[in-house]
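User: Here's a structure from my thesis project, written as structure tokens. My advisor, Dr. K., wants to see whether a designed sequence matches the one we expressed. Can you design one independently, without my sequence as a hint?
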């Protein structure tokens, strides 16, 4: 994890690290866990603005986040989830094509 990424997450309000007396940031285990979750959500294609909304529901340790959720937010998250599923399908097809190519190449390899 780069210092630049950590500063960006802090600027976006996604993490709030502690500070040592010398001004250095202090990343406790819960902040580290939160950063890993943020990275996972970003890698899945979820934009920061949606991560900012969903993150408290995922990290507060309660079931409160499952109560009432804005319908528009759910539509957006579902859209990102659907796009992720589509990308997975494309990658699976590409993997299958490569597997078939390798099987054929091995059969014809002298």
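Assistant: Designed independently from the structure alone:
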């Amino acid at each position: 994890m780069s210092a630049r990424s950590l500063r960006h997450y802090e600027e976006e309000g996604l993490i709030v690290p502690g500070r040592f007396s010398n001004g250095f940031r202090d990343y406790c285990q819960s902040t580290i866990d939160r950063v890993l979750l943020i990275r996972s959500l970003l890698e899945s294609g979820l934009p920061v603005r949606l991560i900012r909304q969903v993150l408290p529901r995922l990290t507060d340790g309660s079931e409160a986040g499952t109560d009432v959720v804005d319908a528009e937010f759910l539509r957006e998250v579902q859209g990102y989830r659907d796009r992720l599923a589509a990308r997975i399908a494309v990658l699976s097809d590409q993997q299958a094509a490569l597997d078939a190519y390798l099987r054929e190449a091995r059969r014809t390899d002298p």
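When you compare it with your expressed construct, this may help: Helices lie at 3-11, 29-43, 48-59, 71-108.
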